[in-house]
Amino acid sequence: MPAGKFDARLDTVPLSPGVYLMKDSSGCVIYVGKAKKLRNRLKSYFGGGVISSPKVRAMVSHVADFEYTVVGSEPEALLLENNLIKRYQPKYNILLRDDKGYPYICVTLNEAYPRVFKAFRPDPEARKKGARYYGPYMGSDCFEVLKAISDIFPLKRCKKVFPRDIGKERPCLNYHIGKCMAPCLGTVKSEDYRAMINQIVQFFEGKYDGIEKDIKLQMEECSANLEFEKAGALRDRLYALRAIRQNQRVYLDIERDVDAIGLYSDCGETCVRKLELRQGRIVGSSTYFFTGEEGDQEEILMNFLMQYYEDAPFIPPLILVPFEMEENDLEVIEKTLTEKLGKNCRLHVAERGELRELSDLAKNNAREMMVRRVLRGGSANADPSLPVRYLEELLGAPEGAISRVESFDISNLGNDDICAGMVVFKDGRADKQAYRLFKMKRVGSQDDYQSMRETLERRFNHSEDDGFKYPDVILVDGGKGQLEAVASVVRSLNGTENIYLAGMVKNDHHKTAGIVFEDGREIRLEGRTLTDQEMGLWRFLTTVQNEVHRFAISYQHKLAGKRNIRYKLETIEGIGPAKRKNLLSHFGTIKAVENASVEELKEAKGITQKDAEAIYQHFHRES
Fold it and tell me: Domains of the chain (ranges plus CATH)?
């Protein structure tokens, strides 16, 4: 955008509160903002001053036009801004987008016989009709919640639509083992099934006391009607619910329903984590990531509150936020949520006591979720070379000295198929063309030290070959002991004095936990607050360790598969390596050999009548 393009227009903009829209050359709205004084805010973009934020600079560079709307107050501006953001979904605004990587659980309350299932994205049309979405859930949390529901409630799990499919098929096994009410029989009233669904909704909202009360009333009613089998099923449901409650840790001795919001930023992203406290127990959580957002925490929090709670199935009377917000923003958000809730809703920064404990827990959870995302490679914004630069610093290497990083892993199954994998990373990125595999030639028994020695010696024997340049760093898959063992081998070889060595320390669960150096220094990365540099290094080490293990073990499995085929055929009398190769060359797979007739087997090169009969009998003998 040419400097001074909007100078004449800017002087006519009023010094009033309002909302402005930035548009690109095609007329598309790319940003919506609010301002206490519109003229001052717009001049901050186009007045020629220095813009420190890279995101704002990028946005301004694409602005071809702007327009604005004057409103009566700042709260009105906030509400209008939120509505326009929802309407235009601008590229440069902070948007609460659903992450396809993290599923929700949907309850189709709009159907006669509602379903409960995993969904990867809320459907706006279904939501309008009454469907509710809970989540998003990370990792295996979604599976665990669905399992808990199926353990308590005899919910249908098939895809049949009722009442359309009633009576079309016999009930499934779940009905016979008490895991389904079997509405397919036509004996379950829609009202009765919906009563159970309402209890599931209460389950999601943490209203366990209400569920217990409903179940007890149903039990009493069934007993009074002499429906003892049905009463027994309800009793089992009650016990299962109580077992779930017992397994939930109590964090607060307070009766109020509370949501706690935590924020954590790293690698150009911000994680928002919401914890739900109901009747003293944390019963649910949601996680959202704002990609490309790491700056204005208050703007992120404000946008999250306005966008999330507008469609939330439940709003608690108290929401804990991690820091103080601007008074006008706070006022309009509280007013909006109060109107939606139908009673007073308050945003609060906890200073002490159990509420502070819950708020801190939400912040720590946000950090942990970001760590999980970073370690699984979910952040695309991090520069892959930054961890390598930090590794240089830790190793005391000159700047730019480290580019090629190698790691080795030994894989075997007992004394069979002993092999090693070598992975290569250049400037933080995997260079798969440089990967190499080694099948042990000298080592005949399980001995990781000797296997590593053979691998390293063979690797350095090829140091002059293309793709086998000397590494700058070797990352050892293991702690101090493994590092010392590898160092003794590497330092005994010619030309390795300038190669840096470090060990990737694992925890009890075989996960990357830290890094150890030749001089004995060790940096623990697990279980503590990390700097951005340490977080990036942890992700890099985890990636390397997982990749070298995957590469080595996949080769070992391939060798084991070949050995199994060899054993399967060469144990047959008269079949040696040559005939085995001929059989596999002719038939393609061991399965095809197993299924072949005697006449078909004889068609393979070198296979006699006697061989064919022996092979056929081997695979078709009666067990």
Answer: 7-88 (3.40.1440.10), 104-206 (no CATH), 258-375 (3.30.420), 386-559 (3.30.420.340), 571-620 (1.10.150.20)
